[in-house]
Amino acid sequence: MNNTARFSSVLNRNIVKRLSNTASNKKKRIVILGSGWGSYSVLKNINRRLFDVKVISPRNHFLFTPLLCSTAVGTLEFRSITEPIRNIGFNDPNDFMLAYAEQLDTSTQTLHCRSALDPGSQFNVYYDKLVIGVGCKSNTFGVPGVEKFASFLKEIADAQYIRRKILTNCEKALSPTLPSEENKRLLHTVIVGGGPTGIEFEQNFMTLKYKMSWRLYQSSEEWFKVTLIEAGKVKEDCVILKDGTCLPCGLVVWSTGLSPQTFTKNLKLPKRIPRGTAVGDPKKNIYAVGDCASLENNPLPCTAQVAERQGRYLARALNSQEKGEEIKPFLFQSSGMLAYIGDFKALPDLPDFKIRGFTSGYFGDQHI
Asked: What pLDDT digit, counting tens, does each position of 68-86 carry?
């Protein structure tokens, strides 16, 4: 290609880009906060020919949370359950910003944000419509020692830390000079919380436990111990129960429920008590989806299924609104729930039929 042709090609691309940006400026701007199930569902279903879409999130990937427990024990690799947000194909690289939304000014329809990479870098983002999908964080209930010594299971970084901790404890336990009591402590894992996450992690860990017993000790003897409890104070090397019983352990996984993010707490919007989750205000062009959201008269569980449906509905409703079409009311119908309980088995709660045993485990794998 000669210089004239090359210059013409570059010029054409610049003109197209400029025209594209000009057209984009005429669109209403939708700002989506978060990259979880609800936000990602909005992003996938929103018509970007109708809207100028911006995403602000401190996480640059979507996380398939139902399989997070499996990555923590090594059954799956971390990259198998993540999808980079930029793979969605933004028109402009700046349409995605790796940042935290810290304050919302509804009078000027402006978000005050801080970079996730450079805390000193702050900026404002204007919106015509705002979708809040920042999710929730693990609830510590103010129990002493949890923030400092316990491990959560909400993000890829949490699963990576837990896997490293398990492997490190195994290596330490193999030291020939290690006292027997310290060996038992290192190989004892305490899981706090009896919800789906706690149960699934326990069962995934049980599968790992038998494999590691054979690999490290060439014996089926249960060197590894797992204890599931409701609550307890957490110290560096043990968990203390309500009756004062001390459980020496090498790892504590905390999974006792959810609490709203700081951004959600500080919002001057209606909230549902006691969860503290936000109720959107369509009159101010503000919408909430996922774990951080509540319906005024019909509260729904904080599950991936609910968040995905809410995000899909909201995106289609906004598309219809922009086209002047009728918007149908939101109606959630559960597709059922599945919880893995180990040994290729799962506990299903399906609306139409009941299964059990190996079949439920196989169905769970296919469902996921």
From this structure: 998 999 888 999 999 999 9
